[in-house]
Amino acid sequence: MLRDPDGNPVDGGKWFTHHGTDVETNWAATDLLSYRTPTERFFVRNHTTAPEIDVASWRLEVWGDGVDGGPMAYSLDELKALGETTYDRALECTGNGRRLYDEQQGEFRPGTQWGLGAIGLASWTGVPLRTVLEDAGLRDDAVQVMPVGLDPSYVCEGTDYGHVRRPLPIEKALDDVLVAWEMNGAPLEPDHGFPVRLVVPGWVGIASIKWLGSLEVATTRSESPWSTKWYRMHGPGYDDPDGTGDPQAAVLDRMPVKSLMDLPPGSEVVAGRLTVLRGRAWAGDATIAAVEVSTDDGQTWEEATLTGPNERSCWVEWEHPWTPAAAGDQVIRTRATDSSGRTQPDRVPTNDDGYLFWAVVQHPVTVTSSSSVPVA
Ligand code: MTE
Fold it and tell me: Which residues have any ligand 1 atom within 6 Å of their CB?
């Protein structure tokens, strides 16, 4: 996100919807139709504010009983010397779509009232977390990494919860997580974690800790408020979600399957004239198997054409030709199925914090009669 010298956003209200310290990418901005989200239009989710970090004195500390190499402190140049990987990956906030619990299901949930714009896709450059951990002497019995951000402590309703941090199981840490210093080919912007952040593909956005200061590698599991109080399912049915007596199952990791249309809600299309509907679909750490579109209140569905790349933990773009027959208000629905067989349902069970809304989204458009369109 671009800011003026006083730290105020300079988008003029066009690219973003503002929610306190957070900004949501505005799908109604007409020129968003690129595969990657430009950095200056990428959503921002800050618990407090972006800290000012002097990269010359900044170090990433790696410590804990899960590494044999003793506490390590890497400068940015030392991290870069470990190797460099670039990949495209989506990043999505756990609460993306929260507003739709209210709008579609009549179940208001407190928290940032995101529409569907708390997701973006960027190319990220950095070193695999696995490489850093191995360089620091990772032990075979390590079970968890606790990344800690350098942003100010998070204080909520009089309680100081400390720095933003969330445990990451070692299996994911060694899989596809990146310690990233570039986004879309440029150093990270302050709002996106300068100088270094984690990118944890396909998982809840909170896992991708920004302004990374330290990694505690441990041989025993521990929690943080970001895995117990927040970013975990709370509410009826969730204290023991799989009936095994293990409340750990309510901790959130992978994101569900979702889809959206790029067309701004409430757009006008013309009866009898071809309109190509376009959008995107994504599915946590899976790929997309199919996207279907309904233009008749969900009675019939037609399969859309997937265009462009369809990679794990990215989105895929889709398009579908539609010639509306008659003028009037219409609701278009899109429904995605992912490579693991999950299909978006019409309605999803809610939870206290409004996380993971993944139901089919109802998208209103107005069909005008061709005679009401002025002749040029
Ligand atoms: N890391 C720190 N240190 N502080 C934060 O507030 N927000 C998290 C995550 N990492 C956060 C953080 C959340 S909830 C999300 S969705 C993503 O960062 C958002 O990343 P972005 O602002 O670059 O889009």
Answer: 42-47, 91, 93, 149, 151, 164, 191-192, 205-206, 208-211
